[in-house]
Amino acid sequence: MSHRNYDLPSLIALEVFEASARHLSIELAASELNVTAEEISRQMKVIEDELGVPLFVRPGTGVALTSAGKDLYNKLASVFSEASDVVTAIKRGGHARMSRLSQPTHSSRSG
């Protein structure tokens, strides 16, 4: 199997971003992920620096998403949800069924 190099921030940074964006709170994201609020802030800075755009604004208490942050959050929430569904199905023994459903079919021409 060949390795594809995805141009993405680390999965940890994406997970921190998703939790922070979903809660709109550094403290709630930190609690959910069992890390300090300082680590959440550090990871948020890492992902913003890597992307070169702000994803959050910090108006007083809490955080709000920028336009870029909203775009990234909406896509990540969908992708994380789909990945979670696949993992749950595999854990329940549904991987064989999923594999059969995802394999392409080829029809032969007669003639």
From TrEMBL:
GO terms for molecular function: DNA-binding transcription factor activity; sequence-specific DNA binding. One of its GO terms (biological process) is DNA-templated transcription. Pfam families: HTH_1 (PF00126). Residues 9-66 form the HTH lysR-type domain. InterPro entries: LysR-type_TF_proteobact-type (IPR058163), LysR_HTH_N (IPR000847), WH-like_DNA-bd_sf (IPR036388), WH_DNA-bd_sf (IPR036390). Belongs to the LysR transcriptional regulatory family. This is Regulatory helix-turn-helix LysR family protein. It comes from Sinorhizobium americanum.
